[in-house]
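A further point concerns the way the authors explain their paired sequence and structure data. Each protein is reduced to its one-letter sequence and a matching series of backbone shape codes. An entry of this sort, consisting of the sequence and the corresponding backbone structure tokens, reads as follows:
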Amino acid sequence: MDNKKDEILTHFQQIINSDDTSYCLGLLNQHDWDISSAVQTAIASQEFGVDDSPIETQPNPSSRNRSSNVHVFREPSTSSLHFSGSSVSDNKARASPKKWPASGSKEHDRLLKIDIDYRGKMLNFNVEDSKTIGKLKELISQKLNIPKCKLVLKNWPKQLDRIRDEATFKSLQLPASIKLNLTTPGIFNDPLNTLQNSMSENETFKRLESHFELIVRCQNKVHTLKFPGSKTVHDIKLSLYHVTNIPVRYQRWEGWPADVTDSITLAGSSIQLPSHNLILSSSRPPGSYATNSTIASKSRNVVELNSSDEEPMDEDDDVAEIYDANDDLEFDETPASGRAFGALLPAVATDPVAATEQFAQEFRNRFGSDGPLFYNGSLGDALKEALLCRARDRKLLAVYLHHEKSISVNVFCSEILCSSAVVPTLSSSFVTWGWDCTIEANKNKFIQDASQLFGSIAANKLKDFTPDQYPLLVIISRQRSTNDVVYIINGSSILDEVISKLLGAQELFRQTQEEDIREEDQRMARVSMLDQQNQAYEASLRADQAKAEQKRKEKEENERREEEESRKQKELERRLKEEKLKREKIRQNVAEQLPAEPDEHCKQELSRIRIRAPDNKILNRRFLASNPLQILFNYLTSEGFHVADFKVLTTFPRRDLKIEDPTKSLKDLKLCPQETLILEAKSDF
């Protein structure tokens, strides 16, 4: 080897961080010692899971001249474990350098016996320990016809409760025989009672290890693509999005079996090996397509990795070869005019109601009306709507944070946030609130609100996210009067991860909600009892107060009556006293004017009058027979018997002298020589 090639080899090994000389020589020889092409192939192999076995050092000339219409989608392999609800660690794991295997190294695979208890029935699997947890879930998914994202495996040994689907059994260092429990949140019927899958376990393994050739006709072009059997239908649709620039939600397919769903794998579907014909069309509105030049410009550098100078690869067909499901981050839905979309919020969002209205409208304009329904109002109002209410009415709060500078934003919104599997979950169990952090002022406002509502720790964590980690879907729950950040889902997450975390958050929230409902019911019962006691006490108090008020009124009435009677009595006494004084004065005047009583031996004719008073007092007096009747009346008045108050009656015949003319003489009235008169008070009649 000459010095120049030696320098190229050393430089190449440093770039890809590999000590495997034979592997590096194979890559360089394959690309005629073009270090740029070799590095691109090595990076694509590392990121998209291409087989790491050494490449033949001698290039095969025939491989340069063969047709480039057949593409192999290889499945990524990883053994990382996931112990945290935050997706930030996922990014760090993906960014860590890969250790290139030594050439020719092999290790014997153990066969694990796995027994799974599902609703009292046992499912038995024999799996090589080089397989991943996801492989096992795919087998279970095919056996039970349940989406992979609905499967939750529990009872792992060594407290390995949170294991990523990409982890291999070998990395977990499990015993040769283990027993697990399977739960399917949200699945209420028993799939084992309606199971109609006739494929044997060995046949399922064989189909999973096989590659399916899909011949897809789209827009007058034919794309021949190869996928491993572990790929789901959704993965196929997402990959075709990169080839045809037709987003998944606008794809219309013909040729899939009737029972195929997005979550089913190719191995579990009823399509035949080795090839299957499909037709793809678009239902996307006119004018919203990206131009072919946009696709070509984004894929040209990668397409040229496997193309020779003499035979360039067809851009439309071969772009799928080097793009895996995670590569959707490289594509956005830029309009044909080439103008990029702007932020979803104004430069300074001061009014939260107007800002969230604009956010929701801009989101619908860009990604369609099938997305989630965003809450209109401030973050605090959304939190009150979701969690600061009765325990029975609570929902989780999903905060979607948009960032226009993220390469993941368009695919995450269109293929995940607007997915038919995500939108119903958000609508039924979440209050979804959206905000755009593209502009620094708006981001700072959100961080300030989050610090007040969720605490400084959660706010600082959200503040540290960089634009390429956006968009974020932050799941907020509430436990023991505290708002907790349950999950932070970033834009690089795949659909299964998002659904799994949403379902997991729902399950945790449901348990907390049930406990809160019990506590709230107990508290409401205590409050109700206390209210009843307070009502009874208040009723008793009101009755006592009413009685006291009645007594007070009666007392006041008695005092008023007594006072009135006393006043009347005094008035009466005053009048009586005045009347008495008046009568006495009249009596004195009359007595002074009354002529003296004639002597008994007077020679003039006399009239002797005997008067019986009401008090049985007898008055006797002599009058001249010629005296007028008025003199008799004056005499009675002088004795204290005012004639106005009495009747002056004769004995026989009985007559009242007051009706007689007082000027008549006693003789004329036949009251002489003597007469007996009776005084009767007028009140006696």
